[in-house]
Automatic annotation (TrEMBL):
GO molecular function: DNA-binding transcription factor activity; transcription cis-regulatory region binding
PROSITE patterns recorded: HTH_TETR_2
Location of the DNA-binding region in this protein: 28-47
Organismal lineage: Bacteria, Bacillati, Actinomycetota, Actinomycetes, Streptosporangiales
Protein name (Swiss-Prot/TrEMBL): TetR/AcrR family transcriptional regulator
Domain HTH tetR-type per the UniProt entry, residue ranges: 3-65
Entry keyword annotation includes tRNA processing: no
Amino acid sequence: MTRSTRERIVDEALRLFAERGYAATSVAEIEAASGLSPGAGGLYRHFKSKYDVLAAAINEHAARTREQIAVSLAEVEAAESLPLETRLAILCKVGLAKVKEERELTRVFFRDLSQFPELVQAVREGLLQPMYDAITTWFRVQPEFAGVDQDWPAVGAVLGGAVVHYWMFLDTVDEPPGQVDRDRFVQSWVRLALGMLSETRETSPVTSA
């Protein structure tokens, strides 16, 4: 699908911010990368400032995240017939893919957003918290844990944090932590989750058919 000029500006600006830093990226460079005449002011036909481009990128990524979460949770019921281990592996892989998708925004978040507290809040409320909330919801709706009194937000923080750390380490040093490839990480993540939840599974109420 052909991107609109506005979409090109947002995408290319975020890429440049991630590569060079927000302050080091000029409006003219964003225009050139977007296929516009550098320095001609084409960016200002769509945005008031470079800051507005960054804010738009965050808002659009947040909106896309909400849509992705809604789709993923809608697919939960269809996957209930699969073994729990398989469902956990799918959850981990989806999480890894999402963190990888947000690598550019993550770089900008840690390097540049401290100067914009309102944008830090937008990322926290629009992307980070919804992703952790989605993990919490995922566990709560699994049939094995129906009606179980468990601290699901804490479980989500531990398991979700492991996924985030894996990709942040890979992105920072250009190799996975402990040189553990993706498949091995997923397998160990599933074992960790099962170990954390083994007592919960043993004490969960039996539901009648």
